[in-house]
Amino acid sequence: MSNSAQADKFSCAPFIKEIGRGKDGARGLPREQAKTLFSAILRGEVSDFELGAVLIALRVKGESHDELIGFLQAIAQHWPDESHSPHFHTLQALNAQSRAEGKPVIVIPSYNGARRKPNFTPLLAGLLAQRGYPVLVHGLQSDFTGRVTSAQVFAHLNWNAVHMPHTAPVYMPMAQIYPRIEALLQTRKVLGVRSCTHTLVKLMVPSAFSNALLVTSYTHPEFWNLQREVLCATGHTALVLRGHEGEPVAAPYRSPRMDGVKAGGTWCISEPENLFTEQPDPHPDIDAESTARLIEMWLNNPQEMPHGFARQLDAIEAVHQAPNQAISHAAI
């Protein structure tokens, strides 16, 4: 993602001066400045050298509420024309299913991948599809650190082998949805750490969807409030939970806290469980093919499935069914 030839078009120095003073001295950017900066990044007007400085400065400081909103506004403003996307008809089909079923498109960002336990994000997608929800999972095709991605599990799943009375869920790589965002995600290979882009993709909903419900997760506690604040401010409908293996799916044997976001308000749907009610497998097979076979088995025999997934399904249903007016003044 070389932007060196366009380095003289935009200077990041005034922005780096604010965000690059270290963890204690740095100041967050106002919303409009954040939008201006990220717009320049998306247009390719920032040199690689300055881009690295911006991403590392934000990583050290931590993104603020206004910065994330400004970045998301820039992403929305520069969203690629989806009518020219090779997946345009897929996105339109999801919209059509949403209208026919009277249910939102469930958007599931999957960018962490599994390292110690199986990646059950495709299972969540399948369970939602069985209930008649149109489902889009988006993420990376592969992870250079060796984590098992949802893309890899989807590649091994045989939807024809499971009970699927409705349309199967769709997986789409970010490279095909928004190439510039994919390029920013790939800076991790050079910088060695994730950037604010990994936070942003968990809050993005494709512009093609007229009715969507985002299922997103956090790992670090400080993001619990931050994500909900941003989603309230941007007007999204969402379920926010502490992720399992960093993925937006409930832990199988111990349900996490889950919060709803709708109409600018947020509320607690369920508190976390403190104890295991079932004995988890201490040494599960986590490779993509083994995970796919387990998912197929549970989709065909949901009574054998750990209870955590069913609780997440109920929480998503609660967000969908919640009346807008009843929660419009809920507090964060």
Automatic annotation (TrEMBL):
A GO MF term: DNA binding
Leader sequence segment: none
Domain Glycosyl transferase family 3 N-terminal: 15-78
Superkingdom in the source lineage: Bacteria
Keywords: DNA-binding, Glycosyltransferase, Transferase
Record-linked InterPro entries: Anthranilate_Pribosyl_Tfrase, Glycosyl_Trfase_fam3_N_dom, Glycosyl_Trfase_fam3_N_dom_sf, Nuc_phospho_transferase
Keyword hit for Acetylation: no
Protein name: DNA-binding protein YbiB
